[in-house]
Amino acid sequence: MSQLRALAAVLRGGGVGGSRLLLGGCGAGQARAARRWAGPRRGCSSRTEPLLPALTASSYVEEMYFAWLEDSKNVHESWDRFFRNLQASGPSGEAGERRPSALLQGRVLSHSHDRAQKVVEDHLAVHTLIRAYQIRGHHVAQLDPLGILDADLDSFVPSDLITTIDKLGFYGLTESDLDRSFQLPATTFIGGEDSTLPLREIIRRLETSYCGHIGVEFMFINNVKQCQWIRQKFETPGAMQFTNAEKRTLLARLIRSTRFEDFLARKWSSEKRFGLEGCEVLIPALKTIIDKSSAAGIDSVIMGMPHRGRLNVLANVIRKDLDQIFCQFDPKLEATDEGSGDVKYHLGMYHERINRGTDKNITLSLMANPSHLEAVDPVVQGKTKAEQFYRGDIQGKEVMSILMHGDAAFAGQGVVYETFHLSELPSYTTHGTIHVVVNNQIGFTTDPRMARSSPYPTDVARVVNAPIFHVNADDPEAVMYVCQVAAEWRTTFNKDVVIDLVCYRRFGHNEMDEPMFTQPLMYKQIRRQEHVLKKYSHKLIAEGVVTLQEFEEEVAKYDKICEEAYTSSKDEKILQIRHWLDSPWPDFFTAEGEPRSMSCLPTGLDEDVLQHIGQTASSVPIEDFKIHPGLSRILRSRADLVKNRQMDWALGEYMAFGSLLKDGIHVRLSGQDVERGTFSHRHHVLHDQEVDKRTCVPMNHLWPNQAPYTVCNSSLSEYGVLGFELGFAMASPNALILWEAQFGDFHNTAQCIIDQFISSGQAKWVRNNGIVLLLPHGMEGMGPEHSSARPERFLQMSKDDPDHIPEITEDFEVQQMYDCNWIVVNCSTPANYCHVLRRQILLPFRKPLIIFTPKSLLRHPDARSSFDDLAKGTKFKRVIPDEGPASQSPRQVKRVIFCTGKVYYELVKERKQLKMEREVAIIRLEQISPFPFDLIREETKRYANAELIWCQEEHKNMGYYDYVRPRFLTVVENKRPVWYVGRDPAAAPATGNKSTHLNELRRFMDAAFNLNAFNKRDM
C-alpha cells in the first residue's frame, strides 16, 4: 500500500519521478469514477492535477480498472497501457475476463488490487534505478586509462547500481523482469523516441550513458532545467556521433600534440620541459572548446595553466612560432630585454589569428604563471572580466576564460576555491569558465589517497553547482564530445563547468625525475601502455576513415615542420622576452616598446573642478533618496570642509577619483567593505533606508560624459581578489585599479600574488602593471593583527641600489620610477594622497603602487589639506620639509628627525609641548621607494650642523629602518652618524596591551627629543 500512497501523492500533484507520464490525464470513465466517489466533476486536463481530495489511491486504481473493463477508451492511454500490462501478467482466465459482474465477486477485485500495487511498485523501482545511475553512475565509469585505479579512490560499487543480476533484488525485481517493458519517466532521455523499454535495455542504455568512458556528476545541481539539459546530452541514444571529417581532424590534432613532444624528447633529452605525454589529448580538447565557442560568437579566449604541456599549448593551440619555442632551449642565447626573464615553461603569449574551424578571427592569450600553480586562476579571471567590461560584453558572449589545472593542485590549493567563489558575484563574474583538469592521478610523488580527502580532485567545483565531466583521456572521441558539451553549457547557461581528463604521466614530475622510486606498480603499467595516438590511428584505419598511408603522411608532414623550425631557431642569437607578452598595450608604447613620453606632469587641479567634486561628494544626487541620519551629518561636515576650501582623507580620495573620471579614466576600487570603508570614512555607496537594494553612487553623477566608477565590496578573500584585480589591471593602462585590504597586515594571505606577480612581474615577463594597493597601517594600540602592513617586506623587494646615487638629472624623479619595480609611499596629507593617485595615471608608464594608508589620520584635525595644495601646477611631494620656525634658521637647528606616516603628528605634538620648534626640525619622507636621494641630500646639507635621526613607530627589525639606513649613509657619504629612534626589536608587529603600547610610545618620544641624555645607537 505504500506504493499506492505514493501513487495517490502523484495524483494530488506532488509528482514522483516521471510517474506523471503513467498517470497523466483523465478520460470519460475516469471522470465517472471520480464523480461516483466524490460528487460533481471538477475538470480534467492533460496535466497531472489534484483531482479529488477525498479519493484514496487504492479506490482510485480500482475505479480506473472498472472503467477500463467497460471500455478501454474510457481512460487515458497511459491507463490503458497500465492495465494491459496487468492483464498480460495475470492468471489465465481472470484478468482477461471483462464482464462488470466479475468485479462484484471480491476475488477478481482483490486480485486486481494486488496486481495494480505490484505494477506501480515495479515502475517506481525502475524510476529509482534510473535516478541511481544518474546520481552515482560515475562511480563505476571506466575512467582510468591504466585500468589499475579508481578515479574516485574507492573500488566500492554502490548497492543501488545493477552491476550483477543478483542486485535486482535491491529494487524488488527479479531476472524474469528484465524483459518486461516499463514506462520511462520524463526525467530521462534514454528511450529516444520510445516511451517504454524492456528493463534489460534500460540498464544497458544507462550503463552506456553513465558507466562507460564518461562519468557525469550533475545531480547535485538545484536547477531542473540545467539537469534536464545535461541528461539530454548524455542519455540520448546516438548523441556521441562524429563524422569522418571530424575524426580526421581529431587525428591530425592528436598527431601534432604527440609528435611535438616526441620531437622535443629527441632533440633535448636531458632538458626539463614538463611534457604532455600521457595526456596528449589535451591539445585537441582545447581546440574543440575554442572551435565550439568561436562558432557561438566568442572572439577572445584568455587561458591560464601550470607547467605541464605549456610548450605544446603554445605551439599547437596558441600557434606560437616553433622556432621561438625551440630557441628557448639554447643555453647560449643572450637576453636583451629588461629584467631577468623566466624559464620557458612559465612564459605566456598573446596571438590573434584565424580560427580554421570557423574562419573567424580569434585572440588567444596564455597568461604567464610561476611555479605557484593555481596562482594564475584569479589573474585570468580578472583580465577576462576587464576585457568584457571595456567591450560592454555584459553576458560574456565575446570573451571567455579557460583554466587548466593539475589534479593535486586543484584539490589542494585554496585559491581554487576562492576563484570559484568569485564566479557568480556581480562585480567579479566572467559568465562561466571552462576548467580542464589534467588528472595525472598523482602529484609530484604523492599518491592521491594521501593528497586529498575528497573522492575526486574536482569536488571543490560542486560548491558553485558546476557540472563535472570525468572522461578517460585515452578515448579521444569521448573527450571531444565532453568538450563540445562543456562549451555548449558555458554558452547556454554562462556558468562554470569542469572537464576532468583522467590520464597518466608517462614520465616523472619532469623528464629528469625517476617515478619508480615511489610509484613502481603504476609506472610498470605505464611502460606497457600503448600510446593513445597509436590506438586511435588503428581504430580509424580499421573503420576505413583514413588509410595507413594517409596517417604516415600526416606524421611526416608535421615532423618536417618541426625540423625546419629547429633549423631556423639556430639563427636566433638574442632572447626576445617581448615575444612572450601575454597582455600587450599597443597604444601605450612606441614601436620600440618604450613609453611615449618621459616628462613628469604636474598633478594639480582647477578650483572649479575641486569645488564641483566636493559639492557632489557632500550631497545625494538622487531625489527622494533617504539616507541614514548619521550619514547626513557626515555629508554636512564634508560640505563645511568644501566651503572652507579644505579636505580630509576621504575628500582627497574623492578629488583624485573624480578628476580622473572626468578625463575618461575608469576607476575600480575593490576589497572587503570598501564601499563604506573599513573605518566608515568613505561612503561611496549610499543606501536608501526605506527601499531595499536601492543605492546611489555619487561618483557616477559627476560629469555628463565621465568614465564609469566601479566600487565593489569583495568576498572575504585576499589571495583570490588581489589576483583578480591584478588581472583586471593588465587589460588596459588607462584605468586606475585599486585593491584595499581591510587591515594592511591582511595582505599576507595574498603574499603569493605580491611576490610572484606584482613585485617581479615586469622582470620575469615584461608585464607592466599599474595596480594600486591601499594598506591601512599605523600603531594605534590595536594589537599584532591590526597594526602593521609590513612595509619591510615591500621595501626588501624594492630593487634600487642602497649604495649608489643615480645621476641626478632634470628627469631624475621620473627616471627613478621608470627603473624601479614598484613605488612605495606613506602619505601624511590628503593632498599628497590625491597627487600620488593622479600621478599614477599621468605617468607615461605603469608601475605597481603600494600606499600605506592611515587609520586615525582619517579624521585627525591636523591631517587636513587646503585646496591650494591641489591647485594647478602643484604635484606630489616625495619629501615634505619642515616649514616651521626651524626652517627659518637651519644653522641653529640641533636635531633633524626624519620620519614617515602617522608618527609625524605625534612628533609635532611632542615638539610643541616641549617648545622645541626652533631646535628640532621634522621632515617627512612621503615616497620611501624609490628613495629620494636628491631631496634627502638637499635636506641634510641644509641642516649641516644638526644631528640626524630616523624615527619610526614600528619595531626596529620591522618598518623602514633596514631600508633607509644604508641609503641615508650613502647620502651623507658615511661622514655623519644617523641615529635610530623607535621601538626595540620584537617578534610580533605590535603589543596587544594598550598600556604597554603607550609606554613604548612615551619612551621613544622621550628619546627623540632628549638632546642631552639621548642613548645614541649608530645606524
Provide tags for this entry:
1019 residues; alpha/beta; Rossmann fold; 35 helices; 28 strands; 13% strand; disordered N terminus; isopeptide bond; oxidoreductase; thiamine pyrophosphate binding; thiamine pyrophosphate; 2-oxoglutarate dehydrogenase complex component E1
Quick summary:
The protein is α/β, with parallel strands linked by helices and 1019 residues long. The chain has four domains: 2-128, no CATH class; 244-580, Rossmann fold (3-Layer(aba) Sandwich), CATH 3.40.50.970; 607-777 and 826-870, 3-Layer(aba) Sandwich (Rossmann fold), CATH 3.40.50.12470; 883-1009, 3-Layer(aba) Sandwich (Rossmann fold), CATH 3.40.50.11610.
Walkthrough of the structure:
By secondary structure, the protein is an alpha/beta fold. The protein folds into four domains: 2-128, no CATH class; 244-580, 3-Layer(aba) Sandwich (Rossmann fold), CATH 3.40.50; 607-777 and 826-870, 3-Layer(aba) Sandwich (Rossmann fold); 883-1009, Rossmann fold (3-Layer(aba) Sandwich), CATH 3.40.50. Helices cover 40% and strands 13% of the residues. It has 35 helices and 28 strands. The strands form seven sheets. An eight-stranded mixed beta sheet has the order 3-10-11-9-8-4-7-6, sandwiched between helices. Strands 17-14-18-19-21-20-26 form a seven-stranded mixed beta sheet, sandwiched between helices. Its cofactor is thiamine diphosphate; Mg(2+).
What is the first-to-last residue Cα distance? 91 Å
Average residue pLDDT: 86
In DSSP terms (H or I, runs of 4 or more residues), the helix count works out at: 35
Q: Which structural category do the helix and sheet elements fall into?
A: alpha/beta
Approximately how much beta-strand content do the residues carry?
5-15%
When the domains are counted, the total is 4
Helix content range of the residues, please? 25-40%
CATH superfamily placement of the largest domain: Thiamin diphosphate (ThDP)-binding fold, Pyr/PP domains
